[in-house]
């Protein structure tokens, strides 16, 4: 059988003690409808609950209508059993409340010592590391600046390399065009050389012919003059 109590009911039972639950001797001897109802009502008020739960509670609440209820046979033994069980339950509740209070006290003490925003119990002084941290921060900043400078130089070198590559490609194209023009002019030069050689041969032939004609003309003049 399980019994449920509110906080106020449990306190009232603790203040009055388990003896207050017991009915006076002979109070339930006359198991009439009215007496049973008063006894059950007084027991319910002492416990702070409407009935005692389960089958026994139903029997205590309905004694007026059921002559073979829980208190019809051996009322004193039944009430003693209920009182013992209630006292045991209250002892368990008291022990659990004390354990809960002790646990809450330990948790509160732990949070006061080691909780967030509390330095009590943690005597850690990190001030000696501040200079090292600042030095490392400065080194990180200088290293970051040097790295950015190196990256900038790499980007500039890449841009210069791209510019030189474009210039090289343009110059290579121009060189190939000039070489093609030179090859064409060489063919023209060969043709001109052949023409010049032919002209020189013709000039020599004409010179010889003119010299021969001149000599013949002088001979004819000499003959005519004689």
From TrEMBL:
<dbReference type="InterPro" id="IPR039008">
    <property type="entry name" value="IF_rod_dom"/>
</dbReference>
<dbReference type="GO" id="GO:0030855">
    <property type="term" value="P:epithelial cell differentiation"/>
</dbReference>
<feature type="domain" description="IF rod">
    <location>
        <begin position="75"/>
        <end position="226"/>
    </location>
</feature>
<feature type="coiled-coil region">
    <location>
        <begin position="79"/>
        <end position="113"/>
    </location>
</feature>
<keyword id="KW-0416">Keratin</keyword>
<dbReference type="InterPro" id="IPR002957">
    <property type="entry name" value="Keratin_I"/>
</dbReference>
<dbReference type="GO" id="GO:0005198">
    <property type="term" value="F:structural molecule activity"/>
</dbReference>
<dbReference type="Pfam" id="PF00038">
    <property type="entry name" value="Filament"/>
</dbReference>
<feature type="region of interest" description="Disordered">
    <location>
        <begin position="1"/>
        <end position="33"/>
    </location>
</feature>
<keyword id="KW-0403">Intermediate filament</keyword>
<protein>
    <recommendedName>
        <fullName>IF rod domain-containing protein</fullName>
    </recommendedName>
</protein>
<keyword id="KW-0175">Coiled coil</keyword>
<dbReference type="GO" id="GO:0045109">
    <property type="term" value="P:intermediate filament organization"/>
</dbReference>
<dbReference type="GO" id="GO:0005882">
    <property type="term" value="C:intermediate filament"/>
</dbReference>
<dbReference type="GO" id="GO:0031069">
    <property type="term" value="P:hair follicle morphogenesis"/>
</dbReference>
